[in-house]
């Protein structure tokens, strides 16, 4: 896992590592970079943000909204690398970065807007693998949690497809 650093340019032109940046700061920078790549001026980017998540400023977005907006911009064609969440497992057989990002994306898609801090995600982990703290997940446990989240997503979409539609009044 790499640490995100701001780089400062010295008078001689060599880049020096600076203070580590928070993931949130990096995501906000990526939103602005993606807007430029997609040819959106500031007003157009803010209008698109309001249409997507109902918030005009990146500063007032929740972390989940910010991550979802970055993934949406990437889907629209921006070439940005979205950083993985901070490593929650400190052991060699802990979940991979890919597993952590995938669990976070699936949780956001299900409406768990606080990511790993959301009590619903922790309760789901506890029901699925018996571990309620993500720092204690193994790779196998992370796979089970991810599979469970994907199945939950799929069952929700199937239930919506199976709901009977009521015809409008006056139609046969």
Question: How would you summarize this macromolecular structure in one to three sentences?
Answer:
The chain has 172 residues and is mainly α.
Molecular structure report:
The protein has 172 residues and is mostly helical. The chain has six helices and two strands, in the order E-E-H-H-H-H-H-H. A two-stranded antiparallel ribbon has the order 1-2. Helix 1 (23-37) runs parallel beside helix 3 (63-75) and helix 4 runs parallel beside helix 6. The N and C termini lie far apart (61 Å).
- Assess the beta-strand content as a share of residues: 5-15%
Tell me the structural class: mainly alpha
Question: How many β-strand stretches?
Answer: 2
Q: What's the alpha carbon Rg, rounded to whole Å?
A: 20 Å
Order of helical and strand elements: EEHHHHHH
Oligomer: single chain
Largest sheet: 2 strands, antiparallel
Q: Helix proportion of residues, in percent? A: 40-55%
Residue stretches low in confidence (pLDDT < 50, at least 5 long) are: 1-10
Going across the major beta sheet, what is the strand order?
A: 1-2
Number of continuous helical runs: 6
Distance between the termini: 61 Å
State mean pLDDT (0 to 100 scale).
Answer: 78
Principal-axis shape:
globular
Which features does this protein show?
172 residues, mainly alpha, 51% helix, globular, disordered N terminus
Please outline the helices and strands:
Elements: E1 5-9, E2 15-20, H1 23-37, H2 42-53, H3 63-75, H4 97-109, H5 119-129, H6 139-162
Antiparallel strand pairs: 1-2
């Amino acid at each position: 896992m790499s640490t995100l650093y701001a780089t400062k340019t010295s008078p001689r032109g060599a880049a020096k590592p600076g203070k580590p940046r928070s993931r949130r700061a990096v995501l906000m920078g990526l939103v602005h970079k993606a807007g430029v790549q997609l040819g959106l001026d500031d007003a157009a980017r803010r209008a698109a943000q309001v249409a997507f998540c109902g918030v005009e400023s990146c500063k007032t977005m929740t972390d989940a909204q910010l991550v979802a907006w970055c993934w949406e911009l990437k889907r629209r064609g921006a070439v940005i690398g979205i950083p993985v969440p901070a490593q929650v497992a400190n052991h060699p057989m802990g979940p991979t970065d890919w597993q952590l990002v995938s669990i976070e994306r699936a949780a956001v898609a299900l409406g768990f807007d606080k990511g790993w801090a959301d009590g619903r995600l922790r309760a789901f982990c506890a029901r699925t693998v018996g571990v309620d703290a993500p720092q204690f997940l193994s790779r196998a446990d992370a796979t089970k949690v991810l599979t469970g989240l994907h199945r939950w997503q799929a069952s929700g979409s199937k239930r919506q497809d199976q709901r009977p539609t009521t015809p409008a009044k006056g139609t046969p």
